[in-house]
Amino acid sequence: QAGRMTGRRGGFGRLTRFVLVTVASLACAGLVAACGGDDDGGEAGEPATLRVGVIPIADVAPLYLGIDQGFFEEEELTIEPQLAAGGAAITPAVVSGDFQIGFSNTISLLIAASEGLPVQIISQGVLGGADESEAWANLLVLRDGPIESPKDLEGKTIAVNTLSNICEVTIKASLEKEGVAVDTFEFAEVEFPDMNAALEAGRVDGACVVEPFVSQGTGPDGQARGIDPFYVRTAPDLTVATYFTTSEYAEQNEDVVNRFVRAMNRSLEFAQDNPDLVREVLLQYTEIPPEATEAITLPQWRTDLSEDTIELLSELSVKYGLIEEEPDLDELIREQE
Q: Please, where are the H alpha helices in the chain?
């Protein structure tokens, strides 16, 4: 709910979350495939059902479009989307085998890999945009509130959908370039649909918001304005999130994963080429009114993983104390077909 938040200063809240992840992993005795049930498929060309963890935001529209367009069905795959709050919640579900595939921000996967968890990126999820004209995420503050510039956020509380994730890293990276003392920020956990309400109620001073909630917060009926399109300011074409599985599942179900990636790549390209259909499909899994979809700045989708930006995020995660050392990206990123 909007009123339920947890917070902490700086980047050292990752341990609590990953204790839960590790427990889930140990519960399966480290054997992900053994926890995944009998409906995963695995034999070459045979039908498979995949539970895919996603977030109810615009980023994952290609998955739903791919289902509607029959791209996954053509690969003999049945996709069952599973809604969650963010990558930090989806990661343990994939590691434990409750989900076969998940959608996660890149930072959560870098943290998991640095902790020795067997996550593996298999396809692009969403890009941040080439420049500010394509920005679909922004740091929102009250339009008539006390925060006039990013500098005014020093010592203040910023809402993020999950702690120690890409919101924190990219907001810090972006605002540090502006001379802001980013180590003074306090971060509070608020789910994306509740961000604007938390901001308007004064429970937080700023909010890491993505579409479709940016346009809602900054529109005529909202009370917010954007002061930092943090993804594009961190790096052009930033890989914000990807689809992933575990290395064990990918090894034992190589054909299934290859078929998912093929269908996902078609879905990404289709979404980029068909913005009107993206706006329609948003109504399937988000709780926004039809008229609101017209105001949304849509994310950017391509099949290219933009690996140089994943490497940048890895470096920034070390810099801001989310991880102690960078994981091996050759192990984290599955080699593409």
A: 14-27, 32-35, 61-69, 71-74, 87-96, 106-114, 166-176, 195-200, 213-218, 230-234, 247-252, 254-273, 275-285, 307-319, 329-332
Residue 138 · residue 227 · CB < 8 Å: yes
Q: Residue 8: beta bridge partners?
A: 187
pLDDT in tens, 166-222: 999 999 999 999 999 999 999 999 999 999 999 999 999 999 999 999 999 999 999
CA distance 272 to 267: 9
Long-range contacts made by residues 41-48, C-beta under 8 angstroms, separation at least 24? 41/76, 41/77, 41/253, 41/256, 42/252, 42/253, 42/255, 42/256, 43/255, 44/255, 45/76, 45/255, 46/76, 47/76, 47/77, 47/78, 48/76, 48/77, 48/78, 48/253, 48/256, 48/259
Quote the DSSP letter at residue 304: -
Distance CA 10, CA 2 (A): 22
Name which of 317, 321, 315 is nearest 169 in CA terms: 317
Select from 172, 131, 134, 128 the least CA-distant residue to 150. Answer: 172
* Contact partners, residue 45, CB within 8 Å, separation at least 6: 76, 255
Give pLDDT tens digits for 277-301. 999 999 999 988 888 899 899 999 9
Amino acid identity of residue 96, one-letter, is: S
How far CA 66 is from CA of 100, 254, 281, 304, in Å, comes to 17, 20, 10, 18
3-state secondary structure of 14: helix
Q: Which residue matches tokens 């290609």?
A: 62
Band (43; pLDDT cuts 50, 70, 90): low
User: Is-cis flag, bond preceding 212, omega within 30?
Assistant: yes
Tell me how far CA of residue 79 lies from CA of 192, 266, 285, 302, 328, in angstroms: 24, 15, 14, 21, 30
